[in-house]
Amino acid sequence: METPGLVVHGEAEPFSTALRSLINNPQYSDVRFVVGQEQREVFAHRCLLACRCNFFQRLLGMEPGSGVPSPVVLSTVPAEAFLAVLEFLYTNSVKLHYHSVLEVLTAAVEYGLEELRELCLEFVVKVLDVELVCEALQVGVTFGLGPLQERCMTFIEAHSQEVLRTRGFLELSAAALLPLLRSDKLCVDEAELIRAARSWARVGAAVLERPVAEVAAPVVRELRLALLAPAELSALEEQNRREPLIPVEQIVEAWKCHALQRGHAARGALCRRRKGTVPREHHRFLDLRFK
């Protein structure tokens, strides 16, 4: 009776090094990509990509014709991120960088590379900082990456003031900004948060060529105007006349919270303070217990 065979393994490092030498190497390449806005030409090997990734299997499934095949155009993925994807597909390892990891993560999600996605997420969590967190949150919201959204939210809640001053905050989508404005744990006062929301809406209005109030409409209801003192609310109302941002009825609701303070406990999100809310005299009439 023949004995069962035994699988033995050679050293992995020389194998990985040999495959790494094939990345973007025109020798023996049978597929060309033109990637990114820079339209960089990248060489690869059809059989390797197809066996490692279903996306490429579908993309490259047709038999190449005679002569030199036409390049495959992938204009939405930056060249650096695409080369990182190839590095992972060829060697099952990848060198990630702070400045490009979110682009690699985006490509991994779009190409269905779950292992690469998880490697990117682990790296993002390790390097998350004030400048990166809003961009990471946007990626998390766009692709429904719940754990990434949660880590970003926790970071922003702890570093709210610094994050609100970043370019990344101004570039958030309304869908990404909403959970921030709904959070009770932001370490920032409402007056500063309102100013940040106005700056965000101005940037969006300039990019989209739409009125500031129209851009702000999906998120502005989450601002807690009743936390402002009467003088602050009056100043906001005057600014709102010059540059509409907040619906008039929302300001009226805030004034009602002030008017009903005698003998009434004003309740609800409009009057619930955040972790960073600066105390004001009228707050003793409001339901301000932080949960």
Could you explain how this protein is built, in words?
By secondary structure, the chain is mainly alpha-helical. It has 15 helices and three strands. The protein has a three-stranded mixed β-sheet. A hairpin with a 4-residue loop joins strand 1 and strand 2. Helix 4 (79-91) crosses helix 5 (101-110) and helix 5 (101-110) packs antiparallel against helix 6.
Quick gist of this model?
With 291 residues, this protein is mainly α. The protein is built from 15 helices and three strands.
Lay out the secondary structure:
Blueprint: H1 12-20, E1 31-35, E2 40-44, H2 46-52, H3 54-59, E3 72-74, H4 79-91, H5 101-110, H6 114-127, H7 133-143, H8 146-158, H9 160-164, H10 167-170, H11 174-181, H12 190-208, H13 212-216, H14 230-242, H15 248-259
Parallel strand pairs: 1-3
Antiparallel strand pairs: 1-2
Helix pairs in contact: 4-5, 5-6, 7-8
